[in-house]
Specification:
Blueprint: E1 7-13, E2 18-22, H1 24-29, E3 33-40, H2 48-56, E4 59-62, H3 67-71, H4 73-76, H5 78-86, E5 90-94, H6 111-121, E6 129-133, H7 141-149, E7 153-157, H8 170-181
Parallel strand pairs: 4-5, 5-6, 6-7
Antiparallel strand pairs: 1-2, 1-3
Helix pairs in contact: 2-5, 6-7
């Protein structure tokens, strides 16, 4: 991703006070409203390999993963975000599964809130598909509208693993990708 070591820093608010945390684990475990999210250093050089791989890709998949500390860094890294945005590749955003037992740093946020945060940092990001689990479709009208404004379409599929419902089932993902690629 970058030619130098990176760290992630975020400021969270609980409504009364703000606190700044730094580090992947610290950001992943923090709670509250995200007021600020950034990489340290703020503008690292993209690796030539990452740059070339993104430029030559036919498809770019983003996610699933811890939203703030795994997905967002690709859009906080300005050069990489620019390369992703300008790529002619088809782009698929894969959204996390809901799970009451997993409380990562963006737990409890709607799909729309996830996408708004991404677009706040990469306002010109257009993508082709938003892949979500069918359990997330009930009250997400704003999400559907935001996806459409970003040039994409929502694909809702049963993606959960039957044994570990917080994980995507590999075969179900392959099936969803087969549908998208055909």
């Amino acid at each position: 991703m970058a030619l130098e070591p990176l760290d992630i820093q975020a400021t969270f608010s609980d409504g009364l006070a703000s606190r700044q945390v730094r580090g992947q684990v610290e950001v992943a475990e923090a709670r509250g409203v995200v007021e600020d999210l950034q990489l340290i250093p703020s503008n690292p050089k993209i690796t030539p390999e990452a740059n070339e791989a993104i430029k030559s890709a036919d498809w770019i998949t983003i996610g699933p993963g811890s939203w703030l500390s795994s997905v967002m860094p690709h859009f906080l890294h300005r050069d990489q975000a620019r390369v992703i945005q300008s790529s002619k590749a088809k782009k698929i955003l894969i959204f996390n599964l809901p799970d009451k037992n997993i409380r990562d740093e963006y737990y409890g946020k709607t799909l729309e809130e996830h996408l708004k945060l991404l677009l706040q940092h990469a306002p010109n990001f257009n993508f082709d598909y938003a892949l979500i689990d069918t359990s997330l479709t009930d009250s997400e009208n704003g999400f559907y509208e935001l996806v459409e404004k970003s040039g994409g379409q929502v694909l809702a599929r049963d993606l959960k693993d039957s044994q570990q419902t917080y994980r995507h089932n590999k075969e179900k993902l392959v099936s969803a990708f087969s549908h998208i690629l055909s």
